[in-house]
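Input protein
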Amino acid sequence: MLGIIADPARLARIAKTHWWSGTDEVRLARAARAHDCDMPLIRRFDPDEARKVMVKHLRDGYPVLTCVDGWEHWITIVNHSKGKFVCLDSRGEPVVLVLDWKQLEERWACEDEDEDGELVDIYDMFPVKPRFRREVHAHFTVARARALRRPENRDLALCWDRYVADLLEICRPRSPLHVEPLTVGELIRRNRDILIGRVCYWHGGIERDQVQRVLRNLRFVADTYGMVVPAASTRRALAELAILLTLWAAGHSPVDPLYVPEPKPRRRRNGAKKKKK
């Protein structure tokens, strides 16, 4: 959401996540600060007021962490549109969820005692606010979330951070300073045939539709973050895309070593006498 590529293992170490007890908001806030972000607590007792506050933060571009299921599990809300909330749930299969308000409220409400000792429902939220100026903004629309929930896109959803990290090396966030930038989709459309043809030729054992699928995934992620290629960098971006696709193909289906002479088979000399026993 914020363009920060964070290693989950490092986050777990900073937050001191335990395999049994998990983690709490204090430890999560520590992990957020380690990545130059703040995670303030916002508590509401009225569900409608809680919903309004959450929607406001989402519209401002801040993902919101919430503890659900009786304070036993954390999920991240990343967008709201037309009464639907796009959520990321590590326990979900797939990890991307689309919930309406009733579904979210049922999981979100947690019963606790107020100052008078009476049991009330509380709604805690923790917006993640960066301390720096954001250049990358993710637009996780409901349509994109539903697309990621399809079984054929499971690998894309699970490898999302890897796609983002690679694209950030090739593309740039859209800026008013760019002169006639190309979207990644347009760059791929113009050069699809040569990219697929070259990768298939160099590899020798990869299918065109497999390369096409990776290109489609790259375009999907780039469009989600609004990434573009400046006009002056199109050749470099095209070369880097070709390198990236070739590395993917070699990892997907290993190839034989290049430019290495094949060993000559050993031949038995004609007329060689057998040794006597």
